[in-house]
Design brief:
alpha/beta; 3 domains; 12 helices; Rossmann fold; binds alpha-D-ribofuranose; 12 strands; 339 residues
């Protein structure tokens, strides 16, 4: 196996000159550079990337920690991350916390032990513990999709989220424009800022329309299908059931569509349902799901952009990117019966 010394001898230069040519860490004359390149080709020498990376303390590998890789939304975020990493020449090591805060922290330790250059984190909600852990290891982190909560701008961490509060407001205003006044809300876990902010938008839209918020119309789910189904059944069994539902993610909205059908009602004739995310499945439900579309792949791509910039400039102030959401009207919402 040829070594850097063999290349240096063949090219008539020092090993450090060969290193400078490989790592482009110092200017060398074109003649010297070509001699080194010719010697590397003749000896079929390939620099040991891991050894080089350990010296430079860069592995060009990013750790990605997702809360639940079975959720199609995060599959879209990951596609954005992978595409951007490929363009930058980075590798990815993926961890799935499976919605478990303990597992999130364990995975952070594993990722850092693998010498990743930084971590892209979509938290399960264990924000403080995760950020404290990462701070002790001085590992750059970009928080994606879920904010650590009020005051995060004071933390020196780069973040990229979507405008969840506006999304909740857009969805609710849309249902109010259809004439609905009893608008239910099926939220995700209250510890998750992405869900909590959507509910804030829901409340603001009702209040600005002069409608008192009925707390019985707000039921918490866990972002999975089953919880959306159960929450919808609970709301439809109220003495005065809602005629429209704002559901804080598409997986729960799919569960809600099933629940409405199972009690013999029709979407949208009897109950309108709007979701959040725009996962690919939303285009194929019956009826097709109206939803608030999140730019999931852009979330992933921007997260990588932030991390690569951070790795080249550790001192600049933290950056906070906020991506817009859009209302995607399909077939699952209609006018209030009798409107
Ligand atoms: O579907 C999973 C939800 O959790 C998405 O709405 C995403 O924003 C994340 O917070």
């Amino acid at each position: 196996m040829p070594t850097i010394r063999d290349v240096a001898e063949a090219a008539g230069v020092s090993p450090s000159t060969v290193s400078h040519v490989i790592n482009q860490t110092r200017h060398v004359s074109e003649d010297t550079r070509q001699r080194v390149m010719d010697a590397m080709a003749a000896l079929d020498y390939h620099p040991n990337r891991l050894a080089r990376s350990l010296r430079n303390r860069r592995t060009h590998t990013l750790g990605v920690l997702l809360p639940n890789s079975a959720n199609p939304f995060f599959a879209q975020v990951l596609l954005g991350i992978e595409a951007a990493c490929f363009d930058y020449g980075y590798n990815v090591i993926l961890g799935n916390a499976n919605d478990d805060p303990e597992r999130e922290l364990a995975y952070l330790d594993v990722l850092l032990s693998k010498q990743v250059d930084g971590v892209l984190l979509v938290s399960t909600g264990a924000y403080d513990e995760a950020l404290d852990f990462l701070a002790t290891r001085s590992a750059p982190v970009v928080m994606v999709d879920r904010s650590p909560g009020a005051g995060y701008e004071d933390l020196q961490i780069d973040t990229v989220f979507t405008d969840n509060e506006r999304g909740g407001m857009l969805a609710t205003r849309y249902l109010l424009r259809l004439g609905h006044r009893r608008v239910g809300c099926i939220s995700g876990p209250s510890r998750l800022t992405s869900s909590a902010d959507r509910v804030v938008g829901y409340r603001q839209a009702l209040t600005e329309a002069g409608i008192r918020v009925d707390e019985d119309l707000i039921v918490s789910g866990d972002f999975q299908h089953e919880s959306g189904y159960r929450a919808c059944r609970q709301l439809l069994e109220l003495p005065e059931p809602p005629t429209a539902l704002f559901v804080c993610n598409d997986l729960m909205a799919v569960g809600a569509l099933c629940a409405v059908h199972e009690v013999g009602l029709n979407v949208p004739a009897d109950v309108s349902v709007i979701g959040f995310d725009d996962i690919p499945l939303a285009s194929y439900t019956v009826p097709r799901l109206t939803t608030i579309a999140q730019p999931a792949r852009d979330l992933g791509r921007v997260a990588v952009d932030l991390m690569v910039q951070r790795l080249s400039d550790r001192e600049s102030p933290a950056r906070h990117e906020r991506l817009p959401v859009t209302l995607l009207e399909r077939d699952s919402c209609g006018p209030m019966r009798g409107e």
